[in-house]
Amino acid sequence: MIKVGVSGALGKMGKEVVSAVCNSQDFELVCAVDVIEIDTEICDGVRINGDLKGAIEIAKPDVMIDFTQPKNVFENTKICLENGVRPVIGTTGLTEEQLNTIKEMTEKNGLGCFIAPNFSTGAVLMMKFAQMAAKYFDNAEIIELHHNQKKDAPSGTAIKTAQMMAIENPNLAKGNCEETETIPGARGGVANSNIHIHSVRMPGYMASQEVVFGSAGQILSIRHDSVDRKCYMPGVLLAAKYISEHNEFVYGLDNIL
After folding, report:
1. Are residues 240 and 217 in the same domain?
2. pTM of the complete model
3. How far apart are the first and last CA of the chain?
4. What is the arithmetic mean of pLDDT over 54-69?
5. Residue 168 sits in which domain range?
6. In terms of domains, do 109 and 234 share one?
7. What is the pLDDT of residues 161-174, one digit of tens each?
C-alpha cells in the first residue's frame, strides 16, 4: 500500500485526487494539506493540515501529490524532497530554472519526482500526434483555452507541446511575412521553433488545446478537450505508483505510457 498525501486537497483538482486515492486499493491517504478549513475531516479520519512540512513529519507519506498554486509549488516541492517524500506535481507555472533545481535535488536526495503539465491520457496523445505532424508541415500555432481562474499563461501543456514539436522541426513559421502588431500581443507568445501560442481564458471552459498545422493547400487541426476533471485521475495515480518505485526525475506523462 502506497501512502499518499495531497497538497491543495480542497481545490477543484485536489478534491478529485483525494477521492481517487480514497477509492483505490493501491493507495492510502495519510495526509491532506490546504490553507482553508484546517482540521476538517476529509476522508477516513484524515484531517486538513495547514502546514506541509508538519503534515509530512506526522504522516510520513511515500508520495505527495501537489495541485496548489504556481506561486507555491516550487517551495512545496523542495520541502518534499528535503524530507524524503516523492512529489507528483500537477501544478503548472514552474520556470526552466526551477525545473533544473528540482531535478538536481531529486538526484542529490536519491528520490523520484514526477512533474506533468497534463495528466490526461488523451491530452498526452494529442501532444504526441502534434510532435509526429510537426515533421511534415512548415507552419504551426497552438491555441489553448482554459477557465478564467487559471493563473498562468500559456499553459504547461502548450509549452510542453511546443517543446516536443521543436524536436521534429526547428522552424514552424516558414514563409511568414514581417509583422507589425498594432495591439501588442495580438499574435500571441512565441515559443520553441517560432511556434505562436495563444491563450484564451473564459468561463465555461475547463481545459482545451488545439494545434493547427498549415502548408500549401491544406490545414490539419489536432484538438483535445477535457470536460471533467476525472479524466486526469488515472494518469495521476499511474504517476504516483511509478514514482514510488523509481528514483528518477520524470517530466511528462508521455514518458511512462
Report:
1. no
2. 0.84
3. 22
4. 97
5. 121-226
6. yes
7. 999 999 999 999 99
- Give the burial class of 170: count Cβ atoms within 10 A of its Cβ; 0-12 exposed, 13-18 middle, 19 or more buried: exposed
Residues 233, 226: contact at Cβ < 8 Å? no
Instruction: Look up residue 169 and give its amino acid.
Output: N
Q: Domain count of the chain?
A: 2
Q: Check: CB of residue 243 under 8 Å from CB of residue 112.
A: yes
From the list 185, 135, 195, the residue with the least C-alpha distance to 160 is 195
- Give the separation between CA 214 and CA 140, rounded to whole angstroms: 6
CATH of the domain at 145: 3.30.360.10
Q: What is the mean pLDDT of residues 85-114?
A: 95
User: 191 with 89, same domain?
Assistant: no
The set of cell numbers assigned to 120 is: 490526461
Q: For 54, list phi and psi in degrees, rounded to 5.
A: -65, -40
Active site residues: 146, 150
Residues 222 and 251 occupy one common structural domain: no
Q: What is the DSSP letter of 192?
A: G
Cβ–Cβ < 8 Å for 246, 110: no
**So what's the pLDDT on residue 257?**
86
178 Cβ contact list (under 8 Å, min separation 6): none
Alpha-carbon distance of 49 to 38, in angstroms, equals 6
- The amino acid occupying position 120 is S
Same domain for 29 and 111? yes
State how far the Cα of 25 lies from the Cα of 117, in Å rounded to an integer.
26
Same domain, 31 and 75: yes
102, 105, 110, 114: CA torsion to nearest 10: -10
pLDDT score, position 128: 95
